């Protein structure tokens, strides 16, 4: 057996650099790295030696560079991914939030945080977490509940089994999610005689498991026995590259489609059967059909509470759920008729098996009425009042190419975008709403641009999220990956402020002007963005915003446009109830009234049905 002598870190990097996806492309788009004492000597030397064969990208924050890696994977439909390495201690724990985001959204990312010394000779090392009752614990154990696979590398040869296991998770559509390999810092530098065969290029096939024949028969029986089915398209439609199959299935059998946040853009917005967004942030057209549907065909979706209106949306007493999902865990939720299989294969199989079956007619007035409402709320204002989020969305939509990708994550904007954005092409809508993580937006936009360099990327972010995490704007400039960022400044956390007031509370500690302070906030976002190397300007009207978007599109580097917005209004059309518990006891009448309304709404839930 031929061997090659390498350090464990060098072996890891070499192995990762020769992994391929089913199209023959490099599976990894490189490694994000912030070096510290836990990874600079071992991983740092290994990555330097790899050069362009496994490029290293430098971020400014461990969490945000991990977000960029995750967005890269999402924009690549999980066909490609990135690795992220940090030191031990805060460098590692800064990534735990990103790991949770990847876990919730079923997205592949490889975390390689440095770890303590396996030989324990210098214990406790700088930044080491010591568990008084367990000597095997380190800070990296925080990753265990938010990783699909976790391992701690305490000997070099453990990589011979750990790395193939990691790849199996990252490339498996059912098990896909974050992998964490805590890499002991002394082990990174240890040498070992590795079999040369370990570094032979490997192609990981895209698995498309077929559903059990009995499950297919059950699905056929369920569909042919109803007249008013509704398809809910989730992110799994994109990951299975099943958008065309979904369209064929829906049109052949005349079944309307509603889209989750992750599923949006599976069908073009102007497709006759695309009834719009579903649930709490849903279109009135989609929600009206959902309320009356006798069969919910969930394709590639977790059916989270925003999708189901906290399980109060589906009101037909005879309704059933048919769940098509490659992950058995998701397919079996809520006593659904389960079809565990790849969405593309399953939809094609059902399309043929259902033959001439067609559901009842879909009232075209439902969608037309909704689109009229969209046009109304997104039109430019006629007065001088501060614009709403919806009006800003309308301006960005009108001045953006249909091939552009809009990126967002948290606050009120995802709800407004879900309702109002007209996605014309698959993957043109990139909103992280599984974990709804503030701070994802700009880093995510960078990752999207790295995955899709030929498409414009427009990041829409509120001032609150921008303040939480903005440093990768500088990275986008440094790397030459241009993103357009629109900052909507409503002076605080406007979305939660509205929720606070809707549950009977007073505006408190959410908006900057109702929080405790000595000096009033006066943040100059344009100056801040400009200081990081972006071209930046502030506009004072919707018309000025549209003009600025033209300049941003033509610019040669990242561009930021800032606009002040009204924190109070949101789109009243569409939407649905969401379960947010209201205090049972309060001295304030507004809270007591909100509790009374809450208790009445709870009676409409059907969580176990």
TrEMBL record:
One of its GO terms (cellular component) is acetolactate synthase complex. Residues 411-562 form the Thiamine pyrophosphate enzyme TPP-binding domain. One of its GO terms (molecular function) is thiamine pyrophosphate binding. One of its GO terms (biological process) is inositol catabolic process. Residues 216-350 form the Thiamine pyrophosphate enzyme central domain. Residues 53-127 form the Thiamine pyrophosphate enzyme N-terminal TPP-binding domain. Keywords: Hydrolase, Thiamine pyrophosphate. PROSITE patterns: TPP_ENZYMES (PS00187). The keyword Hydrolase applies. Belongs to the TPP enzyme family. This is 3D-(3,5/4)-trihydroxycyclohexane-1,2-dione hydrolase. The lineage of its organism: Bacteria, Pseudomonadati, Pseudomonadota, Alphaproteobacteria, Rhodospirillales.
